[in-house]
Amino acid sequence: MRINISRSKIKNDFVAKVEEISGQNLLACYQCGKCSAGCPAISEMDILPNQIIRYAQLGLKDELLQSKSIWICASCLTCNARCPKGINIAEVIEAIRQILLRKREDHLKIEKLSDQQKENLPPIALISSMRKFTS
Amino acid sequence: MKISYYPGCTLKNNAKNFEDSTLCSLRILGVEVEELPRWNCCGTVFSLATDDLIHHVAPIRNLIRVKESNSDTVMTLCSMCYNTLKRANLRVKNDPESLEKINNFMDREKVEYTGDVKILHLLELLRDEIKFENIAEKVVKPLKDLKIANYYGCLLVRPQEIGLDDLENPVVLENLMSALGAEPIDFPYKTECCGSYQTVDKPEIVVERNYQILTSAKARGAEVVTVSCPLCAFNLDHRQAETVRIYPEFKNIPILYFTQLMAIALGCPEKALSLNLHYIDPKPILKEKGLI
After folding, report:
1. Domain A7-103 adopts which CATH fold?
2. Which residue of A3, B217, B220, B271 is most buried, as measured by CB atoms within 10 A?
3. What is the ipTM of this complex?
C-alpha cells in the first residue's frame, strides 16, 4: 500500500479533532508495540493499534476512516492498561469512530439483522452495540 | 446490614439466575437488599469521548435515585453496570464543569448531584464488608472437588482507577471460591476480552474468543467457568453452539455466575439458581459432585 506523508496532512484538522475528542497526546507514542502485543483482536484487524496511533500522528485520515480495525476494537482497555507512556489507545479509536458516527454514518444496521440473529440476544448486547456503533 | 441495589436491565430477564442466586445468598449472609426505585438503564458502556456528556446522564440519574432513597452507597452485580456507574461518577467528581452541565440538563431532578455516591460491586461487599472468612462459616454444602476457572473479563478490573482488584492478576473470585470449599484454577485468559457486543453483528469474533478462552480453562483442568457479567455469560455459554460447529473437537463446558455457586454452598434451594437459563446444562457436573 502506498502512503503519502506530507506536512499539511500532519497538521490537518483531522489530527486536531482526534486529539480533542480522545483527550490524548498522539505524539507521546514511541511505537513500542505493547498495545498490539496485548490486543486480543489483532487477528481481525487490518491496521494494528500501534499503527493506528502512527497513522493518526501522520494525519492519514482516509486510511483510518476506512479501516476495519476501528469497528473491531471492543474497548476492552488492555492496550490502555499496558501503555508505558500512559496513552489511552482505546480513546483514540473511539474518537475515530465518533468522527464517522457524528456524520450519521452508522456502522451497525440493526434493521438488517434477521430475527434469527436477534433471537436470544440479551438486552446488554443490543444496547452496548447500538451505543458503540450507531449515532 | 442494609444496602441499596441497582439491578440493571439484563438481570431482570436473561440473567435472572444471577439476580435470584445473589438475593438468596445475601439473605443467608444477613444483608437486607433494597432495590432502587425508578432505576433506568445505565447505558451499558462508558463513553470514552471527552466531549460526550449526554451519555453520562443515564448513569448519573441512577446515582440521584440512590441519594433520593437516603443512601450513599449502591451495590450492583453486572460488570458493565458497575463499570459505567463508577466511571461516570468518577468523571463528574473530577470535573466540576461537566457535573454542572449535567445537573443543568437534568433540571427536573429534585436532587442536585455532587458526585458523592459510592458504587460497590457485590464482590467488594463480600470481600471488604462481609469478609470471606465469615462467608466460609456459613457454608453448608462445600463445593468440594469442583474445579473452577474464574473469568473476570474486562470491566471488573479495567481501568485501574475503578477496578476492584489487580488489573493483570485479580484473585478476588479465586479467594471467594476457596472460601466456599472449591478448587479455583488459574488460567491465562481470565482477563481477556470475550468479544463483548461484537456478538450482535460479528459473532464469528466472539466464537474465536470463546474457543481460545474456554480451551485454555479446560487445559488447566476446569470443570466449570464462572463469570460476573451477563454479556460474558452469553458469549461464553450460548456461543458454544457455534464454537462446536467450527471446531468439532471442542467439548462443551458449563458457564455459571459466581453467585450461583455461592448460593449452592450457602444452602439456597435449586429454584434460586434458575439453571434452566443456561445453554450448556450445568446440572450433570453439579449432580456428579453431589451439589444439587
Report:
1. Fumarate Reductase Iron-sulfur Protein; Chain B, domain 2 (1.10.1060)
2. B217
3. 0.96
